[in-house]
Amino acid sequence: xxxxxxxxxxxxxxxxxxxxxxxxxxxxxxxxxxxxxxxxxxxxxxxxxxxxxxxxxxxxxxxxxxxxxxxxxxxxxxxx
Length: 80
Fold this sequence. Notes:
Blueprint: E1 5-11, E2 16-21, E3 26-30, H1 31-36, H2 41-44, E4 61-67, E5 71-76
Antiparallel strand pairs: 1-2, 2-3, 4-5
């Protein structure tokens, strides 16, 4: 059986995004971490190597959308 998320909970006051998977596992991600490692070219440039942490403040999640079987597209207030 393929693993996929079945619930997504934004805990904005705690600065966390929690995903519950169909196998019972929970993933708990700090929002700061998710935004800080944004993979877009504006944040990471067009370079090779490990991603760099981008410091931001005051951004909020506007939407979380499923992509494929297990990925999530997070839309931030900055447009990232």
